[in-house]
Amino acid sequence: MSAVAASSQDRPMHGIVFILLGMTAISINDVLIKALSDGYPLHQMVFVRSAIGIIFSLAFLQFEGGWSLLRTDRPGLHVLRCLAVIIANMTFFAALATLPLADATALFFVAPLVITVLSIPLLGEQVGPKRLAAVFVGFIGVLIMMQPGSVLDGEGPSLWVLMLPIVGACAYALMQIMTRRLGGTTAASALAVYIQGGFIVVSLLFWVVAGDGRYVEGLENESLIFLLRPWRWPDESDLVLFLGLGFAAAIIGYTMSAAYKSASPATIAPFEYVALPLAIFWGWFAFGEWPSLQTGLGILLILGAGLYVFLRERVKGRPVSSKRPLRRY
Prior knowledge:
single chain, about 325 residues, disordered N terminus, mainly alpha
């Protein structure tokens, strides 16, 4: 019996522990990227974390069945899925350079609502008025957090910066839809190898095109500078943070896979929402950020709407996620 098949037994407590560890590692990864965003380019960080992460992913691949698991008869769909994950990550991380951690995380969590909307035309799913109402409430939360008045007055972040995590959420939603189309037939370790490999290729392309910093002169927007500043060797004091990024990537890959192998998505998926309070905590602890009352209201609406959509799908017996870990990592 293969490791993949053997791991299909239902162990909900194991799954919950793994998902909590995974979400904690994700939140730490986000903190490290935000902390390094004022001195290094995003693509350099992505390259380091993926280069370390793919080593562990290849080890997991051997454990689950070997190189044969990388074979697929749907390479185009895997490429599109990989691109969607890369866009989701890059836009979210670019937002971290400017937005508070909790704000960026909350805006990204509109992804379940976007998935609900996209499942109608792309998967032919029937979505009732209650779930559509929850989606509407969630998007009201987004508008509250974006504070259109502040954007127009030039007092808050620019509109396109606020849109970055939302674009990431839409890309993530498309990735979810494509994963459902794959039918859960690809091993989690193979999916991780594809994604980490895609990150390495894209980050190296960034280095070839913009690694010398030629496009950063004259820029004032922190997110664009984060994307385009030149590569440089990390300061000695920052080396441990870069190693932490790679280690976090490895922990994320393992724990997310282990969580969804140990228990059903219906049991595991709600615990991904622990990322929101963790983002609030790390934003306060590491950067002295604390959501305003208006932002907190928006976060609560997004959180409540996402959980309601999940619970309605669970009651209806629909697949709330695929059989594989589906977060942006």
